Amino acid sequence: MKYVALVYYQESIINAMTDQEWHDLNQECVAGVERLTEQGNYVAGQPLQPTGTATTVQVRDDEVLISDGPFAETKEQLAGFYLLEARDLNEALHLASRIPPARFGSIEVRPVRELPLKD
Questions:
Q1: Please, are residues 41 and 86 in contact by the beta-carbon 8 Å criterion?
Q2: What percent of the chain clears pLDDT 90, i.e. is strictly above it?
Q3: Residue range 70-108, pLDDT digits in tens
Q4: Does residue 39 register a pLDDT over 90?
Q5: Distance (Å, rounded) from C-alpha 100 to C-alpha 102?
Q6: Full-model pTM
Q7: Which of 30, 42, 54, 23 is nearest to 92 (CA)?
Q8: Residue 2 to residue 92: CA distance in whole angstroms
Q9: 3-state SS string for the chain
Q10: Bigger pLDDT: 76 or 28?
Q11: Residue 104 in contact with residue 14, Cβ under 8 Å?
């Protein structure tokens, strides 16, 4: 079964890191992806650019509304995602606990909902 692991952290914590700390964290993430891939648990994933680069699109009454920034103002910001293959939620949670940015923020794990094929 597929699970998405959404990586959240406070951008201010990341921005306060030295270049070496940021580099080391990224190398940990790369190593983690390699490990997940070797184990057959990694499907896909990508880090995201900071929230300052976000644009939100909404459609209300056939009108397209565009605003700068993320939709929700929160303490932690969405930083990236992993798409994982796991036997069950317990395995997905175990895998998510090993994602390095969990030390600075949180990892939200949710099962993927498969859409029915078009008739």
A1: yes
A2: 80
A3: 766 678 899 999 999 999 999 999 999 999 999 999 999
A4: yes
A5: 5
A6: 0.88
A7: 42
A8: 9
A9: CEEEEEEEECHHHHHCCCHHHHHHHHHHHHHHHHHHHHHCCEEEEEECCCHHHCEEEEEECCEEEEEECCCCCCCCEEEEEEEEECCCHHHHHHHHHCCHHHHCEEEEEEECCCCCCCC
A10: 28
A11: yes
Distance between CA 51 and CA 49 in Å, rounded? Answer: 7
Tens-place pLDDT, residues 40-54 = 999 999 999 998 899
For residue 102, give the nearest of 3, 2, 9 by alpha carbon.
Answer: 9
pLDDT, residue 51, reads 87
CB 6 within 8 A of CB 116: no
How many degrees, rounded to 5, is the angle at CA 111 between CA 47 and CA 82? 15
Q: What distance in Å separates the CA atoms of residue 24 and residue 100, rounded to the nearest whole number?
A: 10
Residue written as tokens 């909902």? 113
Q: Which amino acid is at 110?
A: R
Tokens (6 digits) for 63: 């009108």
